[in-house]
């Protein structure tokens, strides 16, 4: 099957690149041609008032829970390799280490990129491999981190968990000025991808969450011991661990995106995504989930070094015709103030899953919101200190299967020291 070929190909692809890559010292020549190595070391101290984490198959929406309170954690390690053939073309690989739920190194990106200037006004970019699509207005830092907060919004948490482009993408950008001399930039993006047929499982069976953990291309995600995951008489057995980047139906999905920018002032984005999965196919305990969504977002640079960001996402996911049929939506609004090396961010967000099917062993209805306040300080020599507090409310109907209250409020305080190199 294609999935097994992918698992065999990615390690070989990485090894071949490393074997063929000469090492260079830092300097102008490195930026033009050669290998660049980057990394991230992230340590965190957390204080948690809430339920057992979803990573431990609990009802909690955070990555850490009360059992981790007061403990200094190695939150994540990341390593990036970029080999530039010239100014236009390069290969990039990124891998993450996470200590939870099981210590593992996960490949998060591996792709080839080429840029070209087609004319004075038009330029193009092509990517082939496995990479994050440019849907996030938050997560634009190194290794797909957010420069504003430690935990991502619900929307971008889900994008990091269940969405990765494993395929080919093209982006075409026009730049020009209007009659008043104002510069405009318009971009159009299209992609075909595979290996994303099970996406939708986590948002249905766990619901929306907020954290900073990306799923590797070879990664799995745990679910609670829900009734629908138990063997049913005459039914097919589903796995309690999901593989979001798996090919089941051997047909590609696609997405289209458009962006309009007033450089250094305003960015407006629109996205439509459809994995076109066959929701009746089952392989190795993983169903295909037909999942589509649209997203609109905006980022506005305000006077006084303020920035306003917002994304709104709505969609639907179906598994096994109508055994699971859910609408889902989420939105956030974030205000950021930057002053020198200091940055303060405040974010409000809302999320909902609406259960449309009549399966009585699988309640998926959920609604929730969260407030986050974060402060960060950029220390000299690539160090960054952050402190962040979040209050998260959720009302999830499936908790009745575990004799738990459906309504829960969780609180978390995080202190982080990061080093980038």
UniProtKB/TrEMBL annotation:
Q: What is this protein called?
A: DUF560 domain-containing protein
């Amino acid at each position: 099957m294609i999935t097994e070929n992918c698992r065999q190909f990615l390690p070989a692809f990485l090894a071949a690149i490393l074997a063929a890559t000469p090492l260079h010292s830092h300097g102008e020549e490195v930026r033009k041609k050669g290998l660049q190595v980057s990394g991230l070391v992230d340590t965190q101290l957390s204080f948690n008032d809430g339920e057992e984490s979803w990573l431990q198959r609990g009802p909690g929406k955070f990555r850490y829970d009360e059992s981790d309170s007061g403990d200094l954690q190695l939150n994540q390690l990341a390593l990036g390799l970029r080999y530039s053939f010239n100014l236009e073309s390069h290969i990039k690989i990124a891998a993450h280490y996470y200590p939870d739920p099981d210590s593992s190194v996960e490949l998060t990106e591996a792709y080839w990129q080429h840029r070209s200037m087609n004319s004075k006004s038009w330029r193009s970019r092509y990517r082939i491999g496995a990479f994050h699509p440019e849907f996030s207005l938050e997560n634009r830092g190194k290794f797909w981190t957010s420069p504003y907060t430690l935990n991502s919004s619900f929307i971008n948490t889900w994008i990091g968990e269940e969405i990765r482009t494993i395929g080919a993408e093209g982006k075409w950008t026009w730049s020009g000025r209007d009659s008043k001399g104002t510069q405009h930039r318009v971009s159009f993006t299209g992609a075909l991808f595979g290996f994303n047929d099970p996406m939708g499982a986590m948002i249905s069976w766990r619901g929306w969450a907020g954290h900073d953990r990306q799923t590797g291309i070879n990664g799995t995600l745990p679910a609670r011991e829900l009734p629908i995951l138990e063997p049913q008489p005459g039914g097919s057995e589903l796995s309690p661990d999901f593989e979001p980047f798996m090919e089941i139906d051997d047909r590609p999905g696609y997405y289209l995106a458009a962006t309009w920018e007033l450089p250094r002032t305003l960015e407006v984005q629109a996205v439509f995504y459809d994995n076109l999965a066959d929701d009746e196919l089952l392989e190795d305990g993983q169903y295909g989930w037909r999942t589509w969504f649209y997203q609109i977002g905006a980022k506005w640079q305000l006077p006084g070094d303020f920035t306003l960001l917002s994304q709104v996402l709505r969609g639907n996911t179906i598994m096994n015709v109508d055994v699971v049929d859910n609408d889902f939506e989420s939105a956030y609004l974030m205000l950021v103030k930057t002053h020198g090396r200091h940055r303060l961010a405040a974010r409000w967000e809302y999320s909902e899953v609406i259960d449309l099917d009549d399966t009585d062993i699988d309640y998926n209805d959920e609604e929730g919101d969260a407030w986050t306040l974060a402060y960060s300080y950029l220390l000299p020599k690539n160090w960054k200190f952050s402190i962040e507090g979040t209050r998260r409310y959720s009302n999830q109907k499936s908790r009745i299967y575990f004799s738990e209250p459906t309504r829960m409020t969780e609180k978390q305080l995080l202190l982080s020291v990061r080093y980038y190199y």
